[in-house]
Amino acid sequence: MNITKIESLTKTISKVWVDYELAFTLSIKDIKKLELYEDKEISESDYNKIIEEIVIRGAKDKALNIIERSMKTEKEMKDRLKRSGYSEYVIERITSFLKEYKFIDDKNYAANYVKFNSKRKSKRQIQFELKKKGIDNYLIDEVLESYDDEVEGQIIDKYLEKFLLEDGTIPEEKFNKIAANLYRKGFKNSTILKKMRNAQKNQ
Hints:
There is one protein chain. The protein is mainly α. The chain contains ten helices and three strands; from the N terminus they run βββαααααααααα. The chain folds into two domains: 98 residues, Orthogonal Bundle (Arc Repressor Mutant, subunit A); 96 residues, no CATH class. Helices cover 60% and strands 9% of the residues. A three-stranded antiparallel beta sheet has the order 1-2-3. A hairpin with a 2-residue loop joins β2 and β3. The chain starts with a strand and ends with a helix.
């Protein structure tokens, strides 16, 4: 096995390629300590030792520090580790470990996301955001079964309160802009118009 390339990732970390494939990232301190350099031949046992004793351990610590600050979906964690220069093999090892010990649980993440956002965001917006975070569609559908569609109307009512004039009407010049803003937030057009008209009629 041959170290074909060493490239700086940050001031303190470098990527190391072995046989023209990204093998691992190491601190510059570790690279010097292990006496690694381009064109150096390393044995398979030394390679495996580096992976298991240094790279995997460091990646676990990094992943746990990330989760300590805020929970992540599997996709978000993989993206973070990839940006840190870890190989696909290391990333899969770490995410498998995190899932096994429930540090990452996409279903639980999605359920909590719905719980904390269902009273201020539309169902469609929550679906879009969870999908962007890498949550599988079947999990999104499952956790949104508890979403109360009537809440969307209450969210719209509260939003409209900011724009009502003293006589309870919505300024005509703002009507289309307000409707467009609510539509962009994922609310159904029919529900938006119904609520906006009712707001004026009920005053």
